[in-house]
Amino acid sequence: MSLLPTPFPREVFELALRVSPSFAALCDAVSRDDEFLRTTLAGVIKTDEFTRRIWDIYERCGAQEGRHRMELGVLRSDYMLDEPSGLPLQVEVNTVSTSFMALSTRVGEMHRHTISRAGLVSHYAPRAAHDGSDDDDTAGDDDAAVHDDDFALWPNLPLNRALESAADTLAAGWRAMGEDDASILFVVQPHERNVFDQRLIAQRLWEAHGVRCVRATLKEIDQLATVDSVTKRLRLGNVPCSVVYYRAGYAPTDYPGEEEWRARELLERSGAVKSPSAAMHLAGCKKIQQALAQPGALERFVKDAGEMAEMRKVFAGLYAMDGAAAADAVRLGLGDPRGYVLKPQREGGGNNLYGDELTAALRTYDPDASPGEPGDLSAYILMQRIFPPANRTLCLRRGELAELETLSELGVYGGYLRVGETVVLNEVGGHLLRTKAATSDEGGVAAGYAVLDSPLLY
C-alpha cells in the first residue's frame, strides 16, 4: 500500500465515475446479443482455448435461451490518465472476479487516519468553508482530530464505499432470488492469498443484511455441489445457494483439470444467479472491447447521443489482430513499439507484451496463417499505450518502505442488477487507485506489480 494518497485530477476522476454505469449497462447489453458475441469472438474462440471453453459452456447451457433471467455484476472499469490528452483512457472493463473493494476502502480510511493523526489535514485535505455554527469543535483548526462525520468536509479525499457497495449489490441479487434460507457461494482459489478482501465482504453481508456466505474452490464444488433436476436449485453439500459470486475462474490456471470445468458448467446450469454469467464473462473479453471502440459499434447498444459522446471520450486506440485490419495493426505496432501494447484475452496482470516482446510477436505475423497456426495473432488485440503523469509515492511492500517514481491506474466499481427486462441497480460502487513503479509495465497488485492507493483530488 501507499502511505499517503496520490494526486489525481478531479475532472478526470469525475468523468470516469460518470461513464462507468454506462459501461456496466453496455456489458450486459453485449452479453445478451448472441450474434454480436458470436461474430466478434469467432477468431478468438478458434485460437484461445480458455475463451473457447467458456464459450462452450455458454452454448451447452442453452446460450441466450438457457440464461438466468437475472444478471448480477460487481464490475470494475479501469482507466489511466493520458497526459497528452488529459483524459482517463479506458484500460479494460472487468466483468469477472473484480478485487480489492474491501482493501481499497480500508486503505482510504487509513490515509484519512494518518493525515489527521500526523497533523497534515491543512496540507492534504483542506476542508470546505466552515458554516459558522458553534457546535463544531474543530472550527478554526485545520489540523485538529478528524472524526467520521467530518470526512464529508474533505472535498479532495473522496469517500470510498466500494466495500459496502460490493456487499449491498450481492445482497440485492440474493433478495431478488427470494430464497431466505439460501447462502451466497463465494468461488475462490485454493490457498487464497487475497482472503481478507473477500472475508470483509462476507462480514458486511452478514452484519448489514443477515446473509450467510460459504466458500469453495471449483474442485470442491465438483465434489460437493448438486443441482436439483427439477427445480435447478444449487446446493453445496446441504447448504442451498441462490447466488454464485466468482472470485476465481478468470484465468486458465484456475482450471488445472476437468473437475474445475465440470464445476463451472454445473454452476452455469444451476438456478442460482451468477456474478457473472458465462455470457457476461465473455462480454469482458479484450476482443469485445476492441470491437466496441470501432466507428458505429456503440450505436448498436447505446441510443443516447450524449451518453455515447461521453463514452467515446475514454476510448483508447484499439486495433484488431484478425481479418483484413490485422496487417495495418502490425505495421502500426512495428512502426512505434513503445507506443502500443499487445494484449491477450486474459485477466489478472502479467500477460501483456511490450517493447521487444511486442516486436518479436508482431514479426511472426503471417497474413495467410489460419486461426491457431503459427503466424496468426487473432488471440490478441493491439492497444494504444497510455502515458500517465508520474508522481513520488511512499510505498510499503512486505514491511519495506520505498520512495518511488510512480504511475497510477484508477478503477471505478459498479453494482449492477437486471431482473428480467428491468435494470434494478446500476450505480457507481466506489473506486480503486493502484500505483506502480514508473519502470513497471504491468499493474496488478496481487500479481506483485503495484500497491493499493487512494486519490487526492486537485
From TrEMBL:
State the source organism's domain of life.
Eukaryota
Q: Provide the top EC class.
A: ligase
Q: Which cofactor does it need?
A: Mg(2+)
What EC designation does it have? 6.3.2.3
Show the catalytic activity.
gamma-L-glutamyl-L-cysteine + glycine + ATP = glutathione + ADP + phosphate + H(+)
Binding locations of substrate: 198, 434
One GO cellular component term: cytosol
Residues forming the Glutathione synthase substrate-binding domain are 183-283
Q: Identify the residues that bind ATP.
A: 286, 343-352, 354, 383-386, 409, 436, 442
Species, as recorded: Micromonas commoda (strain RCC299 / NOUM17 / CCMP2709) (Picoplanktonic green alga)
- Give binding positions for Mg(2+): 347
According to the record, how does the cofactor bind?
A: Binds 1 Mg(2+) ion per subunit.
Pathway of action: Sulfur metabolism; glutathione biosynthesis; glutathione from L-cysteine and L-glutamate: step 2/2
Family as reported in the entry's similarity comment: Belongs to the eukaryotic GSH synthase family.
InterPro entries reported in the protein's UniProt record: Glutathione_synthase, Glutathione_synthase_a-hlx, Glutathione_synthase_C_euk, Glutathione_synthase_N_euk, GSH-S_sub-bd_sf, GSH_synth_subst-bd, PreATP-grasp_dom_sf
Biological classification of the source: Eukaryota, Viridiplantae, Chlorophyta, Mamiellophyceae, Mamiellales
Q: Which GO terms describe its molecular function?
A: ATP binding; glutathione binding; glutathione synthase activity; magnesium ion binding
Q: What is this protein called?
A: Glutathione synthetase
Q: Name one Pfam family in it.
A: GSH_synth_ATP
The UniProt keywords, alphabetically, are: ATP-binding, Glutathione biosynthesis, Ligase, Magnesium, Metal-binding, Nucleotide-binding
